[in-house]
Write a structure and sequence with these properties.
Branched-chain amino acid ABC transporter permease; transmembrane helix; ABC transporter involved in vitamin B12 uptake, BtuC; two-stranded antiparallel ribbon; mainly alpha; cell membrane; amino-acid transport; transmembrane; about 290 residues; globular; about 5% strand
């Protein structure tokens, strides 16, 4: 029983990281129709920014860790906003060019990160509580899993509230439905779309700091590793569905944890699940049917 509890909660923690990356992918595609293959770079840069804060100010303090989370999210948001302003803005409705540009940016940033911080992983520590465990039904669950789960829930609720109850959220949703009409009313939709990228980048940067705690290190390839499963989550949940991304993140991560423990083929099981969903329901679990 304790093994099942441990696998379930650690799976939820891993699913939280998948969701923090997939939420930005789903948000950007669902509202703007952009497939952003450079999204993992936002996570990696956010993780390194948080690591730099912890390295310079001391990793054992909760205040420093909180600052690292804020800095990681801020750096991710700034990088995402610059990506939209300088690269993506000219490529709306031009999907092939979007893929080429964002894939090129992803490859270039990995090389840039390796040049700045080296190709070897940089190991990281946080506050003592995060390095400890909590007993749940006899299972020693690492505490950082609870933090990741809580952060993912807050991000999900925050994005939903932002889109439904704020002025910018209203502009974004209206701009998606009829951009020409919103522009004719004197509203600059471009600023709202840049904000969407920034929100997705902030979630990824926050996820990068939490992922460095989850795995115990940060490296130039951290974002790319998580991006693969984030794309799988986004497709299974339904492209553009934030709720679908949350459901799929939990499903994929928990299934992956159990399959890795009992059979050792967790990644294969996830790919088979992706194939099954694409065959049975190509629009995803909660995606809108074409």
């Amino acid at each position: 029983m304790s093994t099942i509890v441990l696998l379930l909660i650690t799976g939820l923690g891993l699913g939280a990281l998948y969701f923090l990356v997939a939420s930005g992918l789903s948000l950007i595609y669902g509202l703007m129709g952009v497939l952003n293959f450079a999204h993992g770079s936002f996570l990696t840069l956010g993780a390194f920014a948080g690591w730099e804060v912890a390295r310079r100010l001391g990793a054992d303090s909760w205040a420093v860790f909180g600052l690292a989370l804020v800095v990681g999210a801020g750096v991710g948001a700034a990088f995402a906003a610059l990506t939209e302003l300088l690269l993506v803005r000219r490529l709306y409705e031009r999907h092939i060019e979007q893929v080429l540009v964002t894939v090129g940016l992803a490859l270039a940033t990995v090389a840039l990160f390796e040049g700045a911080w080296g190709s070897d992983p940089e190991f990281i520590e946080g506050p003592a509580w995060l390095r400890g465990t909590t007993d749940v039904a006899g299972a020693p669950v690492p505490n950082d899993r609870f933090l990741a789960i809580g952060a993912a829930v807050l991000v999900l609720v925050g994005i939903v509230l932002f889109l439904r109850y704020t002025r910018f959220g209203l502009i974004i949703r209206a701009g998606v439905e009829n951009r020409a009409m919103v522009t004719a009313l004197g509203i600059d939709v471009r600023k709202a779309f840049t904000l969407v990228f920034a929100v997705g980048g902030a979630a990824a940067g926050l996820g990068g700091v939490l992922a460095s705690q989850y795995f115990g290190y940060v490296s130039p390839h951290l974002g790319a590793q998580l991006l693969i499963f984030a794309f799988i989550v986004t497709v299974i949940g339904g492209l553009g569905s934030l709720t679908g991304a949350a459901v799929a993140a939990v499903l994929v991560a928990v299934l992956q944890q159990f399959a890795n423990y009992y059979w050792g083929y967790g990644d294969l099981v996830v790919v088979l699940l992706l194939a099954l969903v694409l065959l049975v329901r190509p629009s995803g679990l909660l995606g809108r049917r074409a």
